Amino acid sequence: MHYDPIKRTLGGFFNRALWMRVLFYQLLDLLLLRSWHIRKALREWNDLDGKKQILDAGFGFGQYTYRMSQEIKGSEIIAVDVKEEQVADCQIFFGKKGILNAQFMVADLTQYVKENHYDLVLCVDVMEHIEEDVLVLSNYAKSLKKGGMLLISTPSDQGGSDVHEDGETSFIEEHVRDGYGVEDMAHKLQLAGFSRWEINYSYGKWGRISWLLSMKYPMTLLNTSYLFFIVLPLYYLVTYPFALIMNQMDVSMKNATGTGLVVKAWK
């Protein structure tokens, strides 16, 4: 399945007005279980005092940059992405909103290093798209201050990208790998120069069902026909209350396994 065309269509629709873009960010926060896990981790990290230099590595729609710019006091955020159109899009939106503590730039994460500069590097749904992942993790480590934290959300090898058996292809064709194992990720973090880390599963039993209801099924239908956009609100009206409960359960419990990983690593 090609996910990018759907993302562009959704982005174009919600770009019609500033309030619609903000609503879009709020909907993503509600729908995407990974956002629940990232927001929880950011709340815990944000207990630190003082000015915070943040890198949003591969910012996508810019929803995490927006949230951090609004909620993390004293934050200065550099958001980078390899796609020029996404950089230009966020520059326009953030400029119109008058948000001054976030800057956007085109950068290749295999080359981007700003040594000993950042307190936090955020990397959501990016590593599964990058072949040279150890190089990128090393660049993150070099760019962090001593004691700075890397926060990653990525698919696991326990069915991440909706791949469960050999020979199956990823639900999202833009992925270059189906997911990471816990030991594999830990080994790569060590090679990259991190001193310690915590790796936990997301999208466990209940999160997996929520993902099917709130993401896979509607995305599959949208790939068949964009006419499904018409009935999408009704679909979510029926299914989302169940997904909401299951998302909360996934975030609240420690999953023994899951199709996603939430990674925290410190320099």
Structure notes:
It is a single chain. It is built from nine helices and seven strands, in the order αααβαβαββαβαβααβ. Helices cover 46% and strands 19% of the residues. With 267 residues, it is of the alpha/beta class. α3 (33-45) crosses α9, α6 packs across α7 and α8 (205-224) packs antiparallel against α9 (232-252). It has one domain (4-266): Vaccinia Virus protein VP39 (Rossmann fold), CATH 3.40.50.150. It has helices spanning 4-14, 18-31, 33-45, 63-71, 84-97, 133-143, 182-192, 205-224, 232-252; strands at 52-57, 75-81, 102-106, 118-124, 144-155, 196-202, 260-266. α5 links the parallel β2 and β3 (102-106). The chain has a seven-stranded mixed sheet, with helices on both faces. Residues 163-171 have low confidence and may be disordered.
Show the helix and strand layout:
Blueprint: H1 4-14, H2 18-31, H3 33-45, E1 52-57, H4 63-71, E2 75-81, H5 84-97, E3 102-106, E4 118-124, H6 133-143, E5 144-155, H7 182-192, E6 196-202, H8 205-224, H9 232-252, E7 260-266
Parallel strand pairs: 1-2, 1-4, 2-3, 4-5
Antiparallel strand pairs: 5-7, 6-7
Short account of what is shown:
By secondary structure, the chain is α/β, with parallel strands linked by helices. Helix content is 46%, strand content 19%.
Look at the structure and give the CATH class: Alpha Beta
Helix tally?
Answer: 9
Task: Please outline the major beta sheet.
Answer: 7 strands, mixed
- Estimate percent helicity: 40-55%
Give the name of the CATH superfamily: Vaccinia Virus protein VP39
SSE class: alpha/beta
* SSE run: HHHEHEHEEHEHEHHE
Task: Classify the fold: give the CATH topology.
Answer: Rossmann fold
Strand order across the largest sheet: 3-2-1-4-5-7-6
Which band does the percent of strand residues land in? 15-25%
The total of beta strands comes to: 7
Number of domains: 1
CATH architecture: 3-Layer(aba) Sandwich
User: Which residue ranges are poorly predicted, with pLDDT under 50 across at least 5 consecutive positions?
Assistant: 163-171
Shape annotation: globular
Average per-residue pLDDT, rounded, comes to 90
